[in-house]
Write a structure and sequence with these properties.
The chain has one domain (12-266): 3-Layer(aba) Sandwich (Rossmann fold), CATH 3.40.50.150. Helix 2 links the parallel strand 1 and strand 2. It is α/β, with parallel strands linked by helices. The chain starts with 11 loop residues before the first helix and ends with a strand. Helix content is 41%, strand content 23%. The chain is globular, with a radius of gyration of 18 Å. It has a seven-stranded mixed β-sheet with strand order 3-2-1-4-5-7-6, sandwiched between helices. The protein has ten helices and seven strands.
Length: 268
């Protein structure tokens, strides 16, 4: 059976450096938009290391939160950080979620669907797990128009190393990342009363070393690109990206806006 994710996932530490810290920052405004109530049973599809799962349990007095992810490393990290008996983490595929039909009041997918080659299949599986009248909600990064840290890396890399251009194209044309696509997918899946929104946070880096660390790791599209290149190409990209990060100023903190598309809808 084909697995559901093209995201390069190997190290929980690398994922935290790349995205986990920003997922935690985006989770509260996402939950304010999607809604979660006391007594809810909630499923988090593609939970990673648990940023949204833990935020759900803090946001309301829920009965149960189940986080599912394809990565063994991410699930093990999430379990090691969990001391709440309302929370359960399961290893599983978004195409074949290891939960019963109509078992949840709310099903969320958070910064995941853009990495699924057939997102409608995953959305249909989300719908299967929802009770009638339950809420399905998702968010994906606006990678082309709203993710400055990502463009800083990929645009620079593609300009100086021709081999990076194909990876940049793949990154900017991921499913459901264009304006309106996520809401359209929700309507196509049969969800009712759909609403969409833009959610923006800031990504704050202490220094260029803090910004650059994920590209020396193993997780995510940028690290996957760097792993394909020669040492000379990697050094050239790092030099040029550093120049773009510094942008005529001394090394130190930088703050970049990051915008996600979000959608919510009701199961019939």
């Amino acid at each position: 059976m084909a697995q559901s994710s093209t995201f390069t996932a190997a190290s929980a530490d690398d994922y935290e450096q790349l995205m986990g810290r920003w997922s935690r920052r985006l989770a509260p405004p996402f939950l304010d938009f999607a809604g979660v109530g006391d007594g809810d049973r909630v499923l988090d599809v593609g939970c990673g290391t648990g940023s949204l799962t833990f935020a759900v349990a803090s946001h309301a007095n829920v009965t149960e939160v189940v986080g599912v992810d394809l990565s063994t490393a991410y699930i093990e990290r999430a379990k090691s950080n969990c001391s709440d008996d309302r929370i359960e983490f399961l290893e599983g595929d978004a195409f074949d979620l290891p939960v019963d039909d109509a078992a949840f009041d709310r099903v969320f997918s958070f910064l995941v669907l853009q990495f699924i080659p057939n997102p409608m299949r995953a959305i249909a599986e989300m719908r299967r797990t929802l009770r009638p009248g339950g809420v399905a909600a998702a968010a994906v990064w606006d990678v082309r128009g709203g993710l400055i840290f990502n463009r800083l890396f990929f645009d620079t890399a593609a300009a100086v190393v021709p081999e990076a251009a194909e990876r940049r194209k793949q990154n900017y044309t991921r499913p459901l990342t264009r304006p309106g696509e996520l809401a359209e997918a929700w309507r196509a899946a049969g969800f009712k009363a759909t609403q969409d929104a833009m959610l923006t946070i800031r990504m704050d880096y202490e220094s260029f070393a803090d910004y650059w660390a994920p590209y020396e790791g193993k997780d995510g599209p940028g690290a996957a690109l760097m792993a394909e290149l020669s040492a000379e190409q990697r050094a050239l990209i790092q030099q040029k990206v550093q120049s773009a990060y510094l942008d005529g100023d001394a090394d130190g903190p930088r703050s970049y806006a990051a915008t996600a598309w979000a959608v919510t809808g009701l199961a019939p």
